[in-house]
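Chain A, query sequence.
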Amino acid sequence: MSDPSILTIVLNYKTAQMTLEAADAARVAMQGLPGEIVIVDNDSQDGSFETMAAHVVSAGWDRTRVIQSGRNGGFGAGNNVGIRAGLSDGGRPDYVYILNSDAFPKPDAIRVLYDHLNTTPSTGFAGSFIAGEDGVQHTTTFRFPSVWSELEGSIHFGPVSKVLKSYRVPRELTETAPVDWLAGASMMIRQDVLDEIGLFDETFFLYFEETDLCRRVQKAGHQGMFLADSVVTHLGSVSTGMKEWKRVPDYWFDSRWYYFAKNHGRAYATCATIMHLTGGGLHWLRCKLTGKGHGAAPHFLRTMAAHDFAAIFKPMRGQPLQGRLQTGEE
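Chain A, predicted structure.
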């Protein structure tokens, strides 16, 4: 039997040069491993596709191709285009490796994930240790969100956070350990698992799509793992512009509400919002009384309240796509 193969997917949106650098780092990390790299241009419409396609040809990159998504449906939809494309010979890979366009794996980072999946059948997905250019670890390991995590994350009050510490969503892991979900900057998933549970739910435009996918993986009985020896450098939020947000965009509120309503029901989603608004309101009041800045985005609580109240009465949006390898299969 041949060794398991990997399909590495790098999704580009208007960052062609950086995406090529990420793909080049992946090429180095893929040396000695069976598989291919597919760069998906997520309908950038800025010449990214032509630039990247020309570079791959001129640089003589083997086992690498550039394709177009045809539309910008968000992070999950763009990665689904790469997953459905499969290998260039029409075959299916054994593992799918999702790599952000602003993430640069160390030379052995992909092999560490690959070897773990090869030797640990219970693991459905595995993710890397993510650090900034300064070497400081980014928080990319998490618990699944819950009603109680909404209160803990919004109230910013030590005694409450201490009581609810087991519900806190971010987990500061530095050693290899099981994990609920991982940020999708560097994550390897079994293709068999995707065939079983479906691909990314394209109802999520951005944010919560990895949370939802990892939840479905674990509900199907497969474990998630954080592998500290797989090291990836990550710039962070380059394509989304999150660091420059003045207000949280509507699609974040859409994704948050949809995650709770889809996985737990509307009543639970409503309770989660009430908990967040309660915690956030108490934090705002405490800051007003003490004269300290609350640090929240302008009108965040007001926007969440209005958005989620309206969402209660709207029909539920789409459902997760089933795993299909070839584009056009439904």
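Residues 319-330 have pLDDT under 50 and may be disordered. DSSP finds eleven helices and eleven strands in the chain.
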